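Sequence in, structure out. Go.
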Amino acid sequence: MGIMESPAGNYASSWFDVQNVPTNYAFPEKDRPGELPPVCLTLPVIDLGNATDADLVNQILKASQEFGFFQVINHGVSDKLLGDTSNVFKDFFEIPVKDNSNSSGKSNWIYVSSTSFDRDGVHLWRENIKHPCNPLKDCMQQWPENPIGYRDVVSIYLSEISKLGTMILDLICKGLGLEVGYFNRLGEVELLSANSYPPCPDPSLTLGLLRHHDPSIITILYQGNVPGLQVMKDRNWITVGAMPNAFVVNIGNQLEIFSNGMLKSVEHRVVTNSSEARLSIAAFINPSPDCIVEPAQALVTELNPARYKPTSYKEFVYINRALGNHTKTLQRE
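Output:
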């Protein structure tokens, strides 16, 4: 497998239906993933249904400090709902023409094709849909009408994710010594982003997502049975294993700030593979746009002063978008 010149028009069937990676999908040497590392077996897997709160608190804080990531099982979201939601998104990405024109004012979602992203002339090996989720009852009325059932299935999924997020954040509150509910009153599931990563003839040349940090409080990711997420650990990329019906949870920039640096937002990216299509569904629990993000006062003392400057969430996002979403800017004191 190698690189081929970019075709002048569309591919014969789908953009990814090629024998070699087109030049406009092959990243420069310094950005290529190269030979992919083996799946990491040490990323913590936390069983939410088979431990005391005290044990869960200790496991989550340890994982958040060491990796910035962990997986959860026995989380209360049914296997059937996970299957139904996955199938809805798979059906969506198979629709030939995805029209989300906002000219009618009736849609609030964005479809991103593989050519929508362009970094120095290079495209990501993925397709994406994203849309707001809060308030859920209002937002869902403007989501895609096709495939049939999209709105009903995805809204139920997000309701369950919201419950899971509340559980995890309450456990984090207990671990940090904050009042239970501290984060839940500051943030909601504000954004959903689903990605389709088709098989790639040479994964060593391409990327599904660039290295980045999430600007969320936490992100809850479902990646099905196909790995592709990589996390930076000790200056090396590790590949997160894909456990059936598990969720990957990661600490976002805002939680690093709220915790005054006790928990870390960690850089991550997505790689492709040559044999299987991969679907991921990410739900971002974000502060409201006008929320002032700063270290929790209970965590700031004379011996442990505030490490980050207060800023509104919308200003934080604006600054990072201006710099490029692969960059993390935390305004430290």
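Check: Helices lie at 53-66, 79-94, 136-139, 150-176, 253-258, 313-323. Confidence is low (pLDDT under 50) at residues 5-12.
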